[in-house]
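note to self: dont lose this again. the chain is below, predicted strucutre after it. 363 aa total, dont forget to put it in the shared folder this time
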Amino acid sequence: MKNGVNIAGVSESAHEIRERPVEAHHVYRVGATWDARGSLQARTGSVTLGTSRVGRDFRVSCTPGPRAPGPAPSPELLTPAEMFLVGAGACLLTTAVLGASSKGHTLLSASLLMGRAEPGRPWAVDYDLFVRADATPEELIETVRTSCERSPSHRSLVEGGAVSWSLRQPPATAARPGDIVSAARDVAVASEPWPFASDRRRSAGGRHLGVRWDYGVQLSFWPDSESARHARFPVDQTKQFGGMDRGPNPQEYLLCGLAASVAETAASLARARDISVHEVTCLAQGRVDLHGLLGLNAAVPDKIQDVSCALSFRGGATPEQQAALAREAVEVAEVSRLLTLPQPARLSLARDGEHLHELVSGP
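---
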């Protein structure tokens, strides 16, 4: 056990995957629903971990589009882009913690500030990673470099890829997708002041999304908004993967952001075309092959694979209109474009307040 990470368990998983490659395939399922009242909610569904299927039952309330300037109507609401970005950043930070732990380094603290880069930069996303550890600068730099190469959600951000779409029948019950768990619990949002004041290196008016490592594979994040920075959201893994099951994991946040963005975009397109739509549901899923994350097979892609969106509509839209809305929503939704178009990221690493290294992570 190091930093709350069961290293022996990770090694055992790697050995099991060598013996039974099917155990490397993790499939994540989420859903998001928009309705005519203006409600937008995302939910996690079941997860397939190799040959096991695990129920996940978290619900996240969303606010469409970017946050408007000024006080937030409710800090417990996340934008789809915030969910997507925390999925990428939290996955990168988790991978770095796993890497440092596997090498026997003791972490005192690790946090990440991230956000969109300014226009004109050669990268699209900024990461500022702050670490306190007993590792040498060279060891930390190598750990971060390897993390950038193997983190599934981060690789999905910087490499881009295809998102397929399909139509499905509306769920039997309004606003409750059939294969998304119905007994969902709201993500437990805690009130805690913004903890990164000493780490901020950008201008006071800059926007950041803050992610903090807590223990093991458990993290917390704060939204990308000055007015919502007292709201702390959990990031965690399933108990089968070393977590405490207290919140969605990075891949689930990323896919929730995608599903919510696509559902809201489809509804917006319908309104613009005067098509009667009362509810839009988007089920999204993606697969991670742990051969890449664990460094077992260099030929296996590290990023999330087989990403898909299945949409259903309630209202007066014809099947042809539904197909057109679904196709265009997947093409133009903000998060869908973040996922399909490569987004090179600049990462700046600092230890104990001292800048150590900077790299641009890309395809």
